[in-house]
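Next comes this protein:
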Amino acid sequence: MKKTIAALFALLACGAQAQDYPTKPVTMIVAFPPGGVAELVGRPLAASMEKSLGQPVIILNRPGAGGAVGTTVAAKATPDGYTILMTLSSISIFPVSDPLEGKPAPYQISDFMPIALVTADPTVLVVRADSPYKTVQDFVAAAKANPGKINYSSSGVYGTLHVAMEMFAGAAGIELFHIPYQGGGPAVTALLGDQVQALASGPAAAVGQIKGGKMRALAGWGAKRLALMPELPTFKELGYRDVEFYIWSGVVAPAAIPPNVQHKLRAAVRAAAADPQFTAAMAKVSTPINYLDAPEFKNFWVADAARLRVAVEKIGKAAAKK
């Protein structure tokens, strides 16, 4: 009886805390190093969310394994709304890729509650500005003449940038050499430092280098051309089928957060996405905001995860044959 009463009081206390949420700083985990899309979107979004929440939203970078480390930390966090995750589309990859390698999945998509989609851009294929590859046709011809010799960087094994490149390589019938890094920022640095020859990058992480004359974009993974780069052809235009990939960013939380906490977080992201401070930050890195509230974000996520599952399983089967 005493245990039952104690449990009831604990439940009531948690409910009261949830009603008062937030009463302390909120931690936003970014599962990648600084310099990538998650950081470029997450940091200004957190600053704008503080205005609605009335508490600091602190960025915590937890990079590793292409985003799997930080994502797993977020999945296992106490579901009280004080730990949220700024995630990318790679969140859908590791529950598929790890079992393909004989490892238990570090988390499941069902471990998370969608809060809001913030941005969604197709990746772009970039090379250094002094690269001999002026077009995708140049790149493919060189890769066919030198199987496995052209290398590219990525944010990690099975990370978003890895999957995008292997989608393209499979459609083009070429073999590339993959060099994984610990995030999108280091992957871009590797290309600029001439350590690799190509990269699939989110437009936000590459546009400054493209405008600065240090990188050249060859094609995009979208269903249609980027408004940011209207001169850039899509892979579909160039005849490569099943090459569609989006590097999206969104806010999620542990699945068991109380409904009213989820409501407050949704309201905070909704307000932040319309905040002039945030919209100016996104305009500075030429990233369009594609806000979707939780129900619409969930539908978008389900469809994207299904597309990624097919791509990851193809990569896994190809790797097993080598």
